[in-house]
Predict the structure of NR LBD domain-containing protein.
Amino acid sequence: MAAKKSAACRFDPEHETLFLHNGVNLNKSQIHEEGVAVLVEPIFDFAMGLSKLKLDKAEEPENVEKLQDAILGAFKRYVSENRPHQPVHWAKILMKVTDLRSISTRHAERVLCIRLDNSGEVPPLLLEIFNEGH
């Protein structure tokens, strides 16, 4: 899996500013002005809560990813040893994770569509936030 920085790594709690991967800098006060609070405020709340944990270098994404890889490797060995006659069981488990991510993405897209359908014109800030540089 490619490492991605989390929102908290790009969040300045002092200025309540989120630095998005597409170059957009979003201050919390802007989301209320632009009418996109329902969609973006949970991201700010998550980032603020995570920033309060004051994670050190060992707790940052790169190190966590290394630990995840080790844990996944151990889990894969566990599944292989406990289900020797089901060689595709591990792949089925991974497919469920993929399914869950897909459901989450579809849900987020649907929520966005519902919000936009009900409010008419798409706020410019919302377009900028969800534009991934395409």
Observations:
- Helices lie at 28-34, 37-51, 61-82, 89-119, 124-130.
- The beta strands are 11-12, 17-19, 25-27.
- Residues 7-60+74-130 form one domain.
- The mean pLDDT is 75.
